[in-house]
Amino acid sequence: MTTLSTEVLVIGGGATGVGVAWDATLRGFDVVLVDRADLAEGTSGRFHGLLHSGGRYAVKDPRAAEECIAENRILRRVAADCIEDTGGLFVTTPFDDPAYADTFVTGCKATGVDCEEISVSAALASEPRLHPGISRAFRVPDANIEVWKTLWAMSHGAQQRGTRILTYHEVTGVHRSSDRVAGARVRSARTGEEIDIEAQVTVNATGAWAGQIADMAGIEGVRVLPGRGIMIAMNHRLVNTVINRCQMPTDGDILVPIRTVSVIGTTDQHTDDPDDHTVPEDEVDRMFDEGEKLVPGFRQARALRVWSGVRPLFEDAKASDTDTRDVTRAHALLDHQQRDGVSGFVTITGGKLTTYRMMAEETVDAVCRHLGVTRACSTASESLPGSEDGANYRLGERLQRKEASLQDEQVICECELVTRSSLEEAIRRTGSTKLDDMRRQLRLGMGPCQGGFCNYRATGLLHGIDELSAQDANQALLDFLQERWKGTWPILYGDQLRQVRFDDWVFQGVLDVAHAPGAGAGAAGADGAAGAAGAAGAAGAAGAAGAAGAETVASGRAS
Question: pLDDT exceeding 70 applies to what percent of the chain?
């Protein structure tokens, strides 16, 4: 069995875990980070992309609001290339209590959140799709942040400085001797190899799974209340500004423009299982109903994809049936030497993606205490790789770069303008044969066509670069299509049903992927839908009427 030794072992490859690894690396520590899957494949990769101004929590959760606005300002400097400065609006719709607006202003002032009231006419001029009946509007510094770009910038920067990052390595045991944690054992999901990692300090940064890792270490009482919520991506930017309803946080009250789409969210339901990614039909319908209150005609737009994520809400004092909206969105740092008399072990959970840097700083400060050293944090001033010039991301910058060399390089994914060279470089760098990993790396297949025009091109490149067999390359395509199908079938109606039917014609009628060599069991779609894309079953259920444009809801949803 292989044994690795390190000063700091970080368990968890979400924003907080990678942030801890980046911070600890900059402080000169030897670091190993492990995750059971790819980076940001858990909670961090399952949100709406909002860089919070803090306005959403200014009234209900002042501590979270103060943390968000402070970190918002820092991330705009150090992660500029990952952020699009869309700005944000809080608007009072005809469905909201008008009195809340003054309470909101007071809350923003008390928590330091920048807030400026603008005229209704100015709000409607900037966002003409907004509900024309809005009565008040407030501008706040919301923005969107590309989570994968952020995490890959930190991880690449850390690796360049010697940090070892082991994705697809699941923790199977935590090493504890008496009152000290001394590392963990991990197993490679790709090879089955087990590795013992000896560490002076182990950081549990697994978010909603923090209780499970603490249990492995024999630590009691680390209770995380998983709050599951769904989000829906619409096929274009219905708005160019983050739009919030001016009310206490509730379901479906925010619309976030991010890259080529816009995302509405989110619901909030308690679940006992942090791996629960169910998408209830009533929650999907509620999102569409709430979207109409912000943007009339919302239901006529094409719903592109639905997904769910689980928030890690830590609250020792609450019962397990606590309403998860009543639990603070602020973070919790548990130093188990102080809390439980166990040295060498720290848990960080809760918080928001916006506050990952602050959480990491406090965590590595605790690591320093365990190691008996003092080393200053520099993540508030050290720019992430790619953000050194301080320029924010702009929606048209990929197109601008592509047009500068239009005849020089092939575009593989037109929606997200992923080039052949960038895809080839990502495949070589990661050694991955998973197209879903390339999605997180490059946003491959995340645009309006959801892979309908790029997946088979990417599969061909994967085949050629990695010298995979045709069977393995086909399986990579099938696996990707099946993963995309999970987020498509709950919203099959109208234009989206027509798009999926078209994709079905491409993948089934032209490529015949269901019978491609290597298709195997992967060709069976969800809920018995045949075909790798899963589209065949859905289209068959809808019939010719659905393909012709009927508004019938397919694949299990009520008409």
Answer: 89
Q: pTM for the full model?
A: 0.79
**Residue (of 274, 278, 263) closest to 12 by Cα position:** 274
**pLDDT of res. 541:** 31
Residues of the chain with pLDDT under 70: 315-329, 406-408, 466, 518-559
Sign of CA dihedral 231, 237, 242, 244: negative
Give the pLDDT confidence score for residue 466 in this predicted structure.
64
- Inter-residue contact 50 to 256 (CB < 8 Å): yes
pLDDT of residue 539: 34
Q: Cα(458)–Cα(444) distance, rounded to whole angstroms?
A: 9
Q: What whole-number distance in Å separates Cα of residue 518 and Cα of residue 173?
A: 35
Structure tokens at 201: 């300090």
Q: Are 199 and 344 in contact (CB under 8 A)?
A: yes
The answer to whether the bond into 354 is cis (omega within 30° of 0) is: no
CA distance 413 to 420: 9
The pLDDT of residue 497: 86
Q: How far apart are CA 67 and CA 111, in angstroms?
A: 9
Residues 6+ apart with CB under 8 A from 263: 48, 49, 231, 232, 233, 234, 255, 256
Q: Where are the alpha helices (DSSP H) in 300-345?
A: 336-340
Q: Please, are residues 173 and 216 in contact by the beta-carbon 8 Å criterion? A: yes
